[in-house]
Write a structure and sequence with these properties.
Layout (H helix, E strand, L loop, with lengths): L2 E3 L5 E2 L18 E3 L12
The structure holds zinc ion.
């Protein structure tokens, strides 16, 4: 699963933050999980 930095908005590879949840680009700890674009695929019956 990919993560996204809340500060710089860059996507972070999971391997980069295996131990520490820190953005390798700006050093921010504000990282959120990037949601895959699946939500729109839900069809209403
Ligand atoms: Zn960042």
């Amino acid at each position: 699963m990919a993560y996204k930095c809340f500060e710089c908005g860059k996507e972070i590879d999971t391997k980069s933050i295996e131990r520490r949840i820190i953005c390798p680009y700006c050093g921010s700890r504000l990282i959120q999980k990037a949601r895959p674009e699946v939500l729109k695929k839900v069809k209403a019956r």
